[in-house]
Amino acid sequence: MSSANNFKLGLLINPVAGLGGSVALKGSDGTDIQALARSLGAEPMAQKRCERALSVFADREVDIVTYPGEMGENVAKALGFRVQVVGEIIPGKTCAADTERAVIALIAQDIDLLLFAGGDGTARDIARVAPDSLLVLGIPAGVKIHSAVYAITPKAAGEVVAMLLDGKMLSLKMQEVRDIDESAFRAGRVIAKYYGELQVPVEHRYVQNVKSSGREVETLVIADIAADVVELMEEDVVYLLGSGTTVKAVMDELSLENTLLGVDVVKNNQLLASDCTAEQLLSLTANTKTILIISIIGGQGHFIGRGNQQLSAELLARIAKEDIWLLATKTKLNELEGRPLICDASSEQINRKYSGLITVKTGYHDQVLYPVAVG
């Protein structure tokens, strides 16, 4: 690896990563899904999330080698970095093949680290062509993040790069790349597969684990949590119920159909809308008291920003911290081994709003206080 004063950073952005999240499409793989997402009003978020990561070390002397336009050049130049651009793209029509070509081109420039913004599909594309010797770190920008090659937030990715620039010693570890079948995901089934490994600089405060498979679900405890939630529900309050089996138990207790991997809306114990988009949620919660009921991702600790991008910054600005009913068994919290929960919203203001201690419902009339990191 180069010395700190001539560190060469490879930068790669998948411009369509996360495109389907805000419009409830459960992913962004495939041109048909991307076109549908755009027709529903989705806006790309990957460049903004990359900008958040790069801003952490924007005051450093760093040479960035990247691909043209929306695949890295625009963000790097906007922040004032010295930028070398390689390769060619057709703007607005990038695909997995562009990602693979970019990785090969960047490796040829003798980069010290490949920093990329994307989701599990992007990690798969990189793993397909990257040698084991390539040092890689992901900026989470996709709808689904099961792979262990990502920092926990965009800012955390920037912090890891800053540590490398400062010459700090970080462990290098081969981390798993995993992805799910999006068609099965949209049908309510999670089928994750192993697609290889990439070498990642690991700092345990900043780099996430593989998503927990949920094999140790405590059925009785989850049922108790659900009973407690339903007992606390009030008339004329709008409840937004997020994804996952813990929240599904609440819907089961109400005898209502559940999307499992989307956001449903309930009022007066009746289902108002299923699998809502960001715009639908804004409309259904306008000028009314709203409670958000969500759970954490086992093994990682995220509760905002993973699989629920329908919860826009505009919507979250309306919801007070005390109006988030966060559900988790104590077993799931213990899996975090003391690491804080993570809010990775599209807005730093929202991340700060929900940081500090938050109440987690862990059983029937049982709750704990647990820390949330600043995003």
Total domain count: 2
CATH fold group of the largest domain: Rossmann fold
Secondary structural class: alpha/beta
CATH architecture classification name of the largest domain: 3-Layer(aba) Sandwich
Beta-strand content bin: 15-25%
Helical proportion, percent range: 25-40%
User: How are strands sequenced across the largest beta sheet?
Assistant: 10-9-8-11-13-15-16-14-12
Distance between the termini: 29 Å
Using the alpha-carbon principal axes, give the shape: elongated
Main sheet record: 9 strands, mixed
Mean pLDDT metric: 85
Q: Give helix and strand order, one letter per element, not per position.
A: EHHEHEHEHEHEHEHEHEEHEEHEHEHEE
Total strands: the figure is: 16
What is the CATH class of the largest domain? Alpha Beta
Number of distinct helices: 13
Radius of gyration: 20 Å
Poorly predicted ranges (pLDDT <50, ≥5 residues)?
20-28, 213-217
Give structural attributes.
375 residues, 2 domains, elongated, 16 strands, alpha/beta, 13 helices, Rossmann fold
Overview of this structure, please?
With 375 residues, this protein is an alpha/beta fold. The protein folds into two domains: 199 residues, 3-Layer(aba) Sandwich (Rossmann fold), CATH 3.40.50; 155 residues. Helix content is 29%, strand content 24%. It has 13 helices and 16 strands. The protein has a nine-stranded mixed beta sheet. Strands 3-2-1-4-5 form a five-stranded parallel beta sheet, with helices on both faces. Strand 9 and strand 10 form a beta hairpin. Helix 2 runs parallel beside helix 6, helix 4 packs across helix 5 and helix 8 packs across helix 9. The two termini are 29 Å apart. About 4% of the residues have low confidence.
